[in-house]
Design a protein that fits this description.
three-stranded parallel β-sheet; binds NADPH dihydro-nicotinamide-adenine-dinucleotide phosphate; THF_DH/CycHdrlase_CS; multifunctional enzyme; THF_DH/CycHdrlase; single chain; 283 residues; binds magnesium ion; binds 5,10-Methenyltetrahydrofolate; 2 domains; 16% strand
Length: 283
Amino acid sequence: MTAQLIDGVALARQWRARVAERAAALAARGHRPGLAVILVGDDAASQVYVRNKVKACGEAGIHSVLETYPASLTQDELLARIAALNADPTIHGILVQLPLPPHIDAQRVIEAIAPAKDVDGFHVANAGALLVGQRGYWPCTPYGCVKMLEHIGIELRGKHAVVIGRSNIVGKPMALLLLQANATVTICHSATADLGHFTRQADVVVAAVGRPRMLTADMVKPGAVVLDVGINRLPDGKLCGDVDFDTVREVAGWITPVPGGVGPMTIAMLLLNTVEAAERAAG
Ligand SMILES: NC(=O)C1=CN([C@@H]2O[C@H](COP(=O)(O)OP(=O)(O)OC[C@H]3O[C@@H](n4cnc5c(N)ncnc54)[C@H](OP(=O)(O)O)[C@@H]3O)[C@@H](O)[C@H]2O)C=CC1
Ligand SMILES: Nc1nc(=O)c2c([nH]1)NC[C@@H]1CN(c3ccc(C(=O)N[C@@H](CCC(=O)O)C(=O)O)cc3)C=[N+]21
Ligand SMILES: [Mg+2]
């Protein structure tokens, strides 16, 4: 048996088209959605991601402003820029690309973003809203994973979902969203003894670790849905996920590729959150 592929490029295209319709409707009422993206430093991967985000905005009819600063930018200077964007009525979403240089406290910077403009869903107010089931912005990567699961039509109620990774931006919110969808959820991390013991029980596995090909075929239950969040650059320059795609695809029921899986959906959900923020601001 070979797994069916979940095509993140095609699904993201569909979502971006829906966002474009909503953005056009807002623009027609004089409320063009706007996203500000802040990049500090010269991390090569961050530059690629940020460029992709800005390009996707343009194609969806979302006004975007890219602010790039040298790594020497001070935390106070960054906080001042965020304060200005919080007060700017043409900007509905603010994204500060992570990682930030070590002299800047990333959580402090995130908390300076107005929660209503925090389209990454990283602010404690949005994290708390997700925890208690209130309306807020969901982090784009787990949100994209939920859309992929909805797309393939899997019923999560009664299923066992295993999330590998517990970061604030991927693993933890992913687990909460799966719980909200009535899955039984296990969260694994670097201190988990015998990861395979858990993943072999999983109907759904989400790998969000950052270790190339760490999820191997012997760790996957036949027919399981495998979502690969990992983005790893190999010495030869190629990208690969946390899942050993070539072997796991022979066991799984559904699988996302890297590239072309979760990554494009992350960007589509950023646009969705931004148009949503603009709609809420327009009333
Ligand atoms: N496709 C996309 O859109 C996105 C992709 N990414 C990618 O996803 C991956 C994860 O990102 P992020 O959550 O930010 O990463 P972090 O480094 O913040 O978190 C990684 C998690 O993996 C856990 N972990 C590390 N080693 C192991 C192990 N051997 N077994 C089990 N768990 C382990 C860590 O455990 P512990 O907490 O104990 O340290 C941690 O919880 C990265 O490759 C990143 O590039 C990230 C964001 C978006
Ligand atoms: N404030 C903030 N918000 C983020 O959402 C955020 C961040 N910081 N820092 C870094 C991570 C990583 N991330 C990715 C988004 C898209 C792809 C993506 O589109 N990947 C393509 C390949 C891109 C390539 O070729 O490198 C794919 O998987 O097909 C990857 C990774 C968002 N992140
Ligand atoms: Mg991280």
